[in-house]
Amino acid sequence: MENSENRVEEEIRAPLIKQDGFGDQEKAEKRSKEDRWMVYLSTFVAVCGSYEFGCCAGYSSPTQDAIRDDLNLSIPEYSLFGSILTFGAMIGAITSGPIADFVGRKGAMRVASAFCVAGWLAIYFAMGVVPLDIGRLATGYGMGVFSYVVPVFIAEIAPKDLRGALTTINQFMICAGVSVSFIIGTLLTWRTLASVGLIPCAVLLLGLFIIPESPRWLAKGGRQKEFEAALQKLRGSKADISEEAVEIQDYIETLQRLPKASIVDLFQRRYLRSVTIGVGLMVVQQFGGINGVCFYTSSIFETAGFNPAVGTITYAILQVVITGLGATLIDRAGRKPLLLVSGAGLVIACLLTGISFYLKVHEIALNAVPILAVTGILVYIGSFSAGMGAVPWVVMSEIFPINVKGVAGSLATLVNWFGAWLCSYTFNYLMSWSSPGTFFLYAAINALGILFVITVVPETTGRSLEQIQSAINAAH
Predict the structure, then answer these.
(1) In this predicted structure, what is the pLDDT of residue 34?
(2) Lowest CB count within 10 Å: 53, 59, 76, 200, which one?
(3) Are 149 and 298 members of one domain?
(4) Which range, of 140-144, 283-287, 360-364, 458-462, averages the lowest pLDDT?
(5) Which Pfam families does this chain map to (predicted)?
(6) Cβ atoms within 10 Å of 317's Cβ, excluding its own
């Protein structure tokens, strides 16, 4: 048994793609025959789930006063309504991987959409706090599933030269959903805004009837004809898919010789590095302070003496613009350089914001406090949007072997949502303890994140999923 397991591990370490003598010109001709409109359409349909994610996350901020007045809610009751979203997302994160493995990537998106539709309807018709909280919990569950399955689906259907850019659209659409909800939420009633949340779900559910399932998931299930048909549909009727199909099949056949993975198996030596990378990036992303800054942007600006409305709108616009620019750079600059530049910007931003609060506490150069605070927060969100916001999700969708992707992806997503909750929950306590100390702490965590990226995270740009996972296995 030991010899057999060693042989399987050697096969995983071995390069899975043999050089077949094709020249650069011949490869270029193959690519020119690819018709990628179905890849783009499939990505558009999938990221409707990301936009729905943003709608759910951005709903509570502009509707707080109206909901409290209409339903006569106390501050603790509304606080529960706002925070229960994160608990629903944690449950969604735990179950997202097994659901996506069992019913497919499209099936998981249908499940998430159904929960979001039910949740929005419960909120729309709510006449008291209980249906309101149930609806919020349901939309949170949908968010948790979407946060895992959308980047995984896009990574599995995209050609390797587009995978980074297309997966980054996930984060862009989340930001767009949050920003649009914030802006139109000031114009619409809270019930009407809840009904608007149904639109991306409707587009997604209709689109899922048109687009193909993930070829890699079909291949893993032994559905050979459906696998080839889905891959051909994604690459175009005239494209030669033989080389890519063989690569995917060879890798999956090798993985299927291994036993089905459980959560305990993730800590075996063969998977430990990929789990460390995926979970570690989620820790760095969340514990660097993003949700504290995001949820309390207005109060930060107000505390620093800057107009909170102007600052928040600028923040929202900058987030969308920089995330969009990051999507165009990720396949050119690479994942690792973007993470490092982003991390450096986060450290500088936290130091600037921390210094502004230090000056205010000690009543030194008070005229400079608002300028430093605004500069720090805007540099923070710009830096986060440039890399640390989207790239961890891209890398997470790339590094896990398909036989553990469900379990490992659920773990990474759960860590992400737990970090989101812990950061947002502790932010006000930290600010009460020491406002400058809070941002200096975040600066230290982001500095440690830079060291983690340098020493642990591999570059995955321009490589197929099978090449990435084989290289990670070979490196342990």
Answers:
(1) 65
(2) 76
(3) no
(4) 458-462
(5) Sugar_tr
(6) 12
Enter the pTM of the model. Answer: 0.74
**CATH code for position 375:** 1.20.1250.20
pLDDT in tens, 276-325: 999 999 999 999 988 778 766 766 777 777 777 777 778 778 888 888 88
**Using CA atoms, how far apart are residues 282 and 280, in angstroms rounded to an integer?**
5
Say how far apart CA 11 and CA 306 lie, in whole Å. 60
**CA nearest to 196, candidates 309, 63, 107:** 63
When divided into structural domains, the chain yields a total of 2
Distance separating alpha carbons of residues 346 and 108, to the nearest angstrom: 34
Token readout for 330 is: 């990720």
**Is residue 63 helix, strand or coil?**
helix
Rounded Cα distance between 438 and 421, Å, is 17
d(CA 203, CA 199): 6
| Whether the Cβ atoms of residue 52 and residue 170 lie closer than 8 Å to each other | no
CB-based contacts of 142: which residues, under 8 Å, 6+ apart?
52, 56, 88, 92, 112, 113, 114, 115, 116, 119
Give the residue numbers spanning the domain of 202: 36-211
Cα separation, 61 vs 42, whole angstroms? 31
Half-sphere exposure of 227 (CA within 13 A, CB side): 18
Span between the terminal Cα atoms of the chain, in Å: 21
Both 329 and 461 in a single domain?
Answer: yes
- For residues 135 and 177, give the distance between their C-alpha atoms in angstroms, rounded to a whole number: 18
**Dihedral angle computed from the Cα positions of residues 170, 118, 145 and 463, in that order, rounded to the nearest 10 degrees:** -40
Q: Mind listing the pLDDT tens digit for each residue in 191-233?
A: 999 999 999 999 999 999 999 999 999 998 889 999 999 999 9
